[in-house]
Design brief:
Layout (H helix, E strand, L loop, with lengths): L1 H9 L5 E2 L3 E2 L2 H11 L5 H8 L17 H4 L5 H14 L2 H12 L9 H15 L3 H16 L18 H7 L13 H4 L7 H8 L8 H18 L4 H16 L6 H22 L19 H11 L2 H16 L3 H13 L10
Antiparallel strand pairs: 1-2
């Protein structure tokens, strides 16, 4: 089928290109399949693949060295490590064993680590085969190799009722003079010694609702913030897609670890908001987003036809979340992306 052919082609490529941009290929191919536009997957691959770097072979990391290798070891070695694990045990068991270890580093590559894993898991749930197992190995390897902790420990000193909405309302906004340009991982590095950020995250109350409802709450608020901060669309897109990814793997952790995962996803979302939020008084609903709120069928079609990676991933995540915990902001965010993010630049990058 089209998805497997795409995943096979992308398995010959590296997880990043152009000095640190994440390879969205496998994730978008799977999202197109779920949007109901499988016929466009091959076109997406032809447009996107020429920009990518070639795969580098690695060697499995010995078990005693794995803890120290989190976030610092080469992706190729981590991928080889998971290829060996998945060859020797059922993938669901491997996932259950590793998710509690990986969750504290949820920001991995601007949340692309967990996002890639989530798409791989959904593909495997639909059809288990060697190609999709290879993509799960790549996703887990990417997460482990780019594992990144953020300041604070979610919920370490919870304040009753201080749930996700309050956290995102109270998280300190980084002054413009302290902000850093570059990739998302560079932007959040300014928070490393921010005690106020760590304190806010530590006060998170992760017991205010069920984990599923908390995920939906964060996603809906992130979609709203996306619309309110049009100068930082890409950062806010990852707040939505990164948190929504947790739902796709939620069946492979117990309740305690899932609540931990919600905390780490919220922490990553708050970090992006802190470092990209427009100043108060400047925030506004992005132009024309209300007028372009089309039906989901039309939005799915337009997003797929754009072949633009962020538009496709955001639209799929918003459509998915809207069917679980409806919010007007999901449709508005997808409509905004369709209108303002344009079409893929193909092999020229972008």
């Amino acid at each position: 089928m089209e998805l497997d052919q795409a995943l096979l082609r992308f398995q010959s490529s590296a997880p990043e290109y152009s000095g640190g941009l994440s390879n969205h290929g496998p994730m978008v191919a799977e999202a197109l399949d779920c949007l109901g536009h499988e016929a466009l997957i091959s076109a997406w691959v032809d447009v996107y693949a020429p920009r990518l770097d070639d795969r580098v072979e690695g060697r499995p990391i010995p078990l005693p060295d794995q803890a120290a290798a989190m976030g610092v070891e080469a992706f190729a070695d981590w991928r080889a490590t998971f290829e060996v694990e998945l060859a020797g045990a059922p993938w669901r068991g491997v996932l259950r064993g590793w998710l509690p270890i990986l969750l504290p580093g949820y920001f991995a590559a601007g949340m692309h680590g967990p996002i890639r894993v989530s798409h791989a898991v959904r593909a495997l749930e639909a059809d288990e085969n060697p190609i999709r197992l290879g993509e799960l190995a790549a996703g887990l390897g990417y997460w482990a190799s780019r594992f990144q902790r953020l300041p604070g420990e979610p919920g370490v000193e919870p304040r009753p009722g201080f749930g996700p909405l309050r956290v995102l309302e109270k998280v300190p906004i980084t002054p413009a003079a302290r902000r850093r340009k570059g990739f998302l991982v560079d932007a959040v590095s300014v928070l490393e010694d921010d005690e106020n950020f760590a304190r806010t995250i530590g006060g998170t109350d992760l017991e205010t609702a069920s984990p599923g409802d908390l995920i939906g709450e964060i996603c809906a608020r992130a979609a709203h913030l996306y619309i309110a901060n049009p100068s930082a669309r890409i950062a806010y897109i990852h707040m939505v897609t990164g948190t929504a990814a947790l739902r796709l793997v939620s069946g492979y952790v117990d309740d305690q670890n899932l609540r931990r995962g919600v905390g780490y996803a919220l922490q990553a979302t708050a970090a992006l908001h802190s470092t990209h939020c427009e100043p108060l008084g400047v925030q506004k609903i992005s132009p024309d987003s209300e007028e372009t709120a089309l039906s989901w069928d039309e939005l799915r079609y337009r997003a797929a036809c754009s072949l633009e990676e962020h538009t496709i991933k955001l639209t799929e995540a918003c459509w998915r979340e809207d069917r679980i915990r409806p919010s007007e902001f999901f449709q508005l965010a997808a409509a905004d992306a369709v209108k303002h993010l344009g079409a893929s630049w193909g092999g020229r990058g972008g």
